[in-house]
Write a structure and sequence with these properties.
This protein is mostly helical. The protein has one domain. Helices cover about 75% and strands about 0% of the residues. Helix 8 packs across helix 13. The chain starts with 7 loop residues before the first helix and ends with a helix. About 45% of the residues are buried. One of its GO terms (biological process) is regulation of gene expression. Pfam families: AbrB. InterPro entries: AbrB_dup (IPR017516), AbrB_fam (IPR007820).
């Protein structure tokens, strides 16, 4: 027989120590958010915790893995907040911009394929790996697809981790640099009073919708469920008051710290050239998507910031938060990303299977020469 986890007082003591370490880790992230806000960094309560917690993990000072079960809290809060911005006027604009939204999603896929081919030819990864490394999905899902197809998942995990974090760090700072660094930037939710009853009602609504979407096996239930429920309430005139700044800041601290905790010292330390190639490919993809989006914006007379955020190869929660902080239409940015999710997610498996078959045929031809 093998010994199981400690029970009784010993087990309780270990659990309390683990929660204490997690609390210290999140507190360090919160301190990073406060510092980022003090110096005027864009998206401070996301970027600050991300930078501080990633540093703690990479230096080995306080390596932690924020439990995945905490991440839905941040996603639910962001999704509910965005859902409440949906109005009949917003829906009319979404319908009017539907061709632009679909075209942007397809262009993003084209950019991903271009960067994947370039990276594969540069010798950093196989074509299948480079595609899975660049496509906007979660690191866990991308790694699972790699394993299922018999592909080494390590390069995929490294690139996906860098992708999520690099987009959050680079895009807001780049927009600030191009557009000008404002002296004062309003914080989303800053003017909303703190009402515990409204906060609990909104959280309960979002949590219930998340559970329903999970049961229905709808993609991205943690975000899409609360978004759909609160948007329906808002459009029908029954919207609840939005979350105050404190709740939004806590949600961003959780999301930023979760991203920071995905940096593993041993993984990135052993990656060497692969990490450099991954980072270069991610930045190239971000630049290519941004240029394509700016071109679409120019052609249709739209705000380039809106299109760049909509085309960015980042997570939907993070990009929507960025949109709210940069005073862009978060509902429209959400529509861009959700359109991409529903166009991409059903098609990623067969694209990966096609790439695997292609690479195996190419390898078989080389072996017969």
């Amino acid at each position: 027989m093998t010994d199981g986890p400690p029970t009784g007082r010993a087990g309780l003591r270990l659990r309390l120590m683990a929660w204490a370490r997690l609390g210290l880790f999140l507190a360090a992230g919160a301190l990073g958010g406060w510092a980022a806000q003090a110096i005027g960094t864009p998206l401070p309560w996301m970027i600050g915790p991300l930078v501080v917690t990633a540093a703690l993990c990479l230096t080995g000072l306080l390596p932690m893995k924020v439990p995945d079960r905490l991440r839905p809290f941040g996603q639910i809060v962001v999704a509910c907040q965005v859902g409440l911005t949906f109005t009949p006027q917003t829906l009319d604009r979404l319908i009017a911009l539907a061709p632009v939204i679909v075209a942007t999603a397809l262009l993003t896929m084209g950019c991903i394929l271009v960067v994947s081919v370039v990276v594969a030819r540069a010798g950093g990864m196989t074509l299948t790996q480079s595609f899975l490394a660049a496509v906007p999905t979660s690191p866990i899902e991308a790694a699972a697809m790699a394993i299922e197809k018999g592909v080494d998942p390590v390069p995929v995990i490294i690139s996906q981790t860098l992708r999520l974090s690099a987009v959050v760090l680079v895009l807001p700072l780049a927009i600030y640099t191009i557009d000008g660094w404002p002296a004062i930037r309003s914080q989303p939710g800053a003017g909303t009073p703190f009402d515990p009853v409204n906060i609990l009602l909104l959280l309960a609504c979002g949590f219930a919708a998340m559970c329903l979407f999970r049961l229905l096996r709808i993609p991205n239930p943690n975000f899409l469920g609360p978004l759909t429920a609160t948007a329906a309430l808002s459009v029908t005139g029954h919207g609840l008051p939005p979350f105050p700044l404190l709740v939004l800041a806590l949600a961003q601290i959780v999301l930023g710290s979760w991203l920071g905790s995905t940096f593993r010292r041993e993984l990135l330390g052993s990656a060497g050239r692969l990490a450099v190639v991954s980072l270069a490919s991610i930045l190239s993809l971000l630049l290519l998507c941004s240029l394509a989006a700016a071109g679409i914006a120019w052609g249709f007379g739209l705000d380039w910031r809106l299109l760049v955020l909509g085309a960015a190869p980042g997570g939907v929660s993070e990009m929507v938060l960025t949109a709210k902080y940069l005073d862009q239409d978060a509902a429209l940015v959400t529509a861009f990303h959700l359109t991409r999710i529903f166009l991409f997610m059903p098609n990623i498996p067969w694209i990966v299977a096609l790439l695997v078959r292609y690479e195996r045929r190419q390898a078989a031809r080389r072996d017969t020469r």
